[in-house]
Q: What sequence folds into this?
């Protein structure tokens, strides 16, 4: 039986906990850089399927039925490829990403988050992609009004509103601001009304905390928190996330989706997060 | 410093740059839309989006545009100067010299600006907008995902299809990183191998008669894709529902016909309907409207190498009486080609 953690960033919240408790979890750990640059690789793909075969020092890893891969390959850092001659860096990074897309998928279904479009670790959608998906998947869920494109064509009705200019991949900017760039096109959206709730999802457990220190006692009585908990759990389940931050804005009995992210930086600051993750990891790995 | 195994000289870059100063983006207007009274009225027509360095496909389409049809040809290098776009509430609008254009369909030749280009970020936003837009399109960014990794596409699209039909196979493929001696052992075990990029980066395919002369230390730099060399004829099939165009490629001695010095020759052929149905199902599984499928065939079997989501069909279309160009136009206009 083999339990393998493959990770790209030791500071990523789930990675940090998994590495800390690796002995207790009987988890072998492998840094993606060790795999890509220090290991021997002898994979084969033919009519019978994919056979993954990695050798790092005295350790061997294969995608056998008894192996489970805890996938925390969030990204490939540009800095890693500075070990290549300058003219090869872009190419080497593209090749490594393409290789990992294949190799990680070869562990399916015994992998925590299978690579998807835009990410080697589950789904990593931009804000507008998240919103459009959520709108169609969850009928009653509202989404922010947003604009993509010509910065001179922002709606006149937005002038006195709380506009947020950001990169669509930046999931954590929700404070109104001014545009930083003068590029011809921009991404902007109106900050949703209401109280921002951080829903921390780990497996089937959902904890909720106000993002900006508001008092939410009234939400407990009115059942808003319970509804938020249910909605966040459904979003995380639909995305097949192991753990997630989900930002909801509660206003007059309805919710507007802020964002969801499967690297739970917000959740990691909440009390009890470590023990929730540890419990979930023990449950996830118990069959292997 | 480390070097990639496939040398830069075997990875010919796509042409790029700022596109020069010449304005290429333009509208071809039918008689009604070109009148003065319609100058600022939103025009609904196909939009062809390409790089200034990949204009030949656009030109071929423009040559096939009937006189009573309109079409917008936009070049990415001119985003923000001559034309722009907005996406709000599910509506995508382009403006070309103040003329609004509501696309009936978009043909997005896979293209991106150099990272240093001032409108690079704007081009990324355009990709997102096109992916969100629900209208008919060919070649969007989202459609290129599976082909961004050749072994991933083999594993997730082509292998499942090959299991459904006898006679279609995938090439035995090896992802290798190790010493030169281990590579020689692989060669001794598997026989002749070819090497190519693992990603969608274009590389010239060569066999061991070439790659054994490359830097032997770099076999351990990063994972490398090798495939068992298959002896057979190259076949290229373009699919654009419901049509298909197939050619057999007659090449001389090289492994990769695209790099034949004198140019390979194409002969039209008619593939059997069972194979076509299978290829269509593979293209559909990747949500591809237009695809270019690379096969190799011999008497015993057919292997599928790759499904290109943004195929360069220009050279092939000369052998199909430019009917691919016309079919693309019809798809973008919402009707089928005759």
A:
């Amino acid at each position: 039986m083999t339990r393998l953690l493959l990770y790209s960033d030791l500071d990523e919240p789930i990675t940090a906990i998994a590495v800390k408790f690796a002995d207790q979890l009987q988890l072998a750990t492998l840094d993606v850089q060790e795999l890509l640059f220090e290991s021997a690789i002898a994979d084969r793909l033919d009519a019978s399927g994919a056979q993954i075969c990695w050798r790092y020092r005295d350790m061997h890893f294969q995608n056998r039925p008894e192996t489970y891969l805890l996938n925390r390959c969030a990204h490939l850092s540009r800095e890693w490829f500075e070990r290549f001659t300058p003219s090869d860096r872009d190419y080497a990074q593209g090749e490594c990403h393409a290789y990992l897309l294949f190799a990680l998928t070869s562990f399916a279904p015994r992998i925590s988050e299978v690579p998807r479009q835009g990410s080697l670790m589950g789904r990593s959608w931009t804000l507008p992609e998240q919103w459009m998906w959520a709108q169609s998947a969850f009928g009653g869920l509202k989404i922010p009004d947003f604009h993509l494109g010509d910065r001179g064509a922002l709606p006149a009705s937005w002038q006195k509103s709380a506009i947020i200019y950001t990169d669509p991949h930046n999931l954590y900017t929700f404070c109104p601001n001014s545009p930083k760039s003068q590029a011809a096109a921009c991404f902007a959206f109106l900050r949703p009304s209401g109280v921002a709730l951080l829903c921390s999802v780990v497996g089937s457990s959902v904890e909720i905390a106000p993002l900006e220190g508001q008092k939410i006692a009234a939400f407990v009585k009115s059942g808003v928190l319970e509804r938020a908990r249910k909605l966040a759990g459904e979003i995380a389940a639909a995305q097949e996330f192991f753990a997630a931050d989900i930002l909801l804005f509660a206003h007059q009995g309805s919710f507007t989706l802020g964002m969801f992210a499967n690297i739970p930086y917000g959740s990691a600051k909440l009390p009890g997060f470590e023990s929730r993750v540890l419990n979930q990891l023990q449950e996830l790995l118990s069959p292997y | 410093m480390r070097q990639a195994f496939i040398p830069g000289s075997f990875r010919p870059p796509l042409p790029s740059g700022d596109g020069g100063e010449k304005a290429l983006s333009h509208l071809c207007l039918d008689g009604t839309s070109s009148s003065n009274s319609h100058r600022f009225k939103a025009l609904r027509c196909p939009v062809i989006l390409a790089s200034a360095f990949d204009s030949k496909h656009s030109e071929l389409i423009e040559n096939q545009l009937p006189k009573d049809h309109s079409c917008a040809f936009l070049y990415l290098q001119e985003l923000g100067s001559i034309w722009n776009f907005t996406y709000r509430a599910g509506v995508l609008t382009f403006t070309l010299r103040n003329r609004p254009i509501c696309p009936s369909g978009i043909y997005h030749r896979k293209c991106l600006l150099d990272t240093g280009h001032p409108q690079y970020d704007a081009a990324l936003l355009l990709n997102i907008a096109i992916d969100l837009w629900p209208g008919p399109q060919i070649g969007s960014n989202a459609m290129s995902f599976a082909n961004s990794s050749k072994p991933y596409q083999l594993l997730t699209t082509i292998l499942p299809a090959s299991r459904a039909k006898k006679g279609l196979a995938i090439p035995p493929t090896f992802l290798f990183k190790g010493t030169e001696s281990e590579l020689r052992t692989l060669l001794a075990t598997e026989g002749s191998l070819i090497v190519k990029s693992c990603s969608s980066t274009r590389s010239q395919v060569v066999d061991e008669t070439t790659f054994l002369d490359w830097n032997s230390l770099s076999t351990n730099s990063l994972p490398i894709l090798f495939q068992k060399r298959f002896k057979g004829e190259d076949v290229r099939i373009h699919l654009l529902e419901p049509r298909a165009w197939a050619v057999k490629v007659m090449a001389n001695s090289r492994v990769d016909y695209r790099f034949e010095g004198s140019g390979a020759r194409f002969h039209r052929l008619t593939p059997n309907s069972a194979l076509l149905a299978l290829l269509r199902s593979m293209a559909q599984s990747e949500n591809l409207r237009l695809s270019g499928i690379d096969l190799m065939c011999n008497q015993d079997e057919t292997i599928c190498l790759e499904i290109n989501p943004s195929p360069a069909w220009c050279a092939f279309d000369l052998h199909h009486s430019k009917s691919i160009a016309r079919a693309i136009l019809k798809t973008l206009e919402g009707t089928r080609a005759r």
